[in-house]
Amino acid sequence: MVLHVKTAHASHVFRALADPTRRALFEELTRQGEQTVHALTRYAGVSQPAVSKHLTVLKRAKLVRHRREGRETHYRAQPDALAPMVDWLRVYGAFWRDRFDQLEALLERMK
Amino acid sequence: MSHAAESPDTLVVERVFAHPPEKLWRALTESPLLAQWMMSNDFEPVVGRRFRFRTEPVSHWSGVVDCEVLVVDPQRRLSYSWGVGESEAGLQWVVLWTLTPAEGGTHVRMEQSGFRPEQKANYQGAKYGWQKFFSGLERVAEGLE
């Protein structure tokens, strides 16, 4: 049973999404498609430097990509990067179900 | 049955076993018994005790789960942290076992939640909940293989 869910990348993804503002930004991008930093700042209701910082963390986790156009930076979501999270639910879901079966078998053997 | 509870950082598996809570508690807390259904371990039911589960190493993972006992409430609740991987690249969860007497046996609930303690605090105070995010995640996951 492999329980490490490709940790090197997964830890970035989990940490990036552990923050509610970043989660909100990421979801906004998956919902609306590409957005400028200005639009995201209006949406998030926090300062632009704060939004930029959050976007950097999301970028490091490969959850978003950006491109510059004139003076604006546009961001878009990379939903494929969520794979470690989906893996986690799948891997551990199977792991615990299997352990429960083994626990049941042990209980039968115990006096 | 297992399902992601109200958030994708929490995994819940529940089952009713036709055995009394005392027996379940032994299976959960006596190291040799625990080894028979979980993994080999040096567990002791003492709060603050650090212990390890060990399984076969695989590429990129030593097969070790680093844990610390957080809650010992005999025949009712048992909790330990669950850490996989080294420091920066590592991931940490909390496993909570809850035993409740049920008709003809014991209802066992295992909840595994993450991530790190400071992030957990953050998440609890969040106005933007995981629940909302999860519906989006499910939609996105459908597009992944």
UniProtKB/TrEMBL annotation, chain A:
Which CDD domains does the entry link to? HTH_ARSR
| Gene Ontology MF annotations | DNA-binding transcription factor activity
* UniProt domain HTH arsR-type: residue ranges: 2-97
Question: What's the name of the protein?
Answer: ArsR family transcriptional regulator
Protein source organism: Paracidobacterium acidisoli
UniProtKB/TrEMBL annotation, chain B:
Q: SUPFAM superfamilies of this UniProt entry?
A: Bet v1-like (SSF55961)
Q: Which domain of life is it from?
A: Bacteria
Q: What is this protein called?
A: SRPBCC domain-containing protein
Q: What InterPro entries does the record tag this protein with?
A: ASHA1/2-like_C, START-like_dom_sf
Sequence similarity:
Belongs to the AHA1 family.
What region holds the Activator of Hsp90 ATPase homologue 1/2-like C-terminal domain? 19-141
Q: Name one Pfam family in it.
A: AHSA1
Which species does this protein come from?
Paracidobacterium acidisoli
